[in-house]
Design a protein that fits this description.
The chain has about 150 residues and is mainly beta. It has one helix and nine strands; from the N terminus they run H-E-E-E-E-E-E-E-E-E. The strands form three sheets. A four-stranded antiparallel sheet has the order 5-4-8-9, with no helix packed on it. A three-stranded antiparallel sheet has the order 1-2-7, with no helix packed on it.
Length: about 150
Amino acid sequence: MKLTILSFFILLSITCRGQEKQTEYTYKFHLDNMNKGEVILEIRNADKESFKIPDGIDNNGLVITAFQKSDTEAGVYEDIDFPKKHFDCFIEPCFPYRFLLEKNMEKQYKFNISGSSSLEKNKWYRFKASLETKICKNCNYISSNWIYFKK
């Protein structure tokens, strides 16, 4: 009986050690220069502890997964042809974690979305984007909901 209880506690402690806490952070996309094809991803440390993130992320790291247009913001959106990038990362992390992000500190990454210059004026657009790498060791992947803008 003692051996069974001891085995259970050893197994329980091994299982608990394998679960790492997810790092808490927030992110948002800035579209101030979207008419020029520029998107800025801002990462903010909402955790109690500092953590390391990439100093820079290659432009191909942000992948547009869907792109649509409409005549009005609340109207029906239709898919449009948009150059799709494919980004393959064979090792994790794709971009080394070298920048220490302190509590309540933020870092921005700039991405250029090709093809945005060919968009029609006075139309509403929306897109979904995902970062094809983790922003830190214990972070979840970033994948946006619809992001809206007017050209």
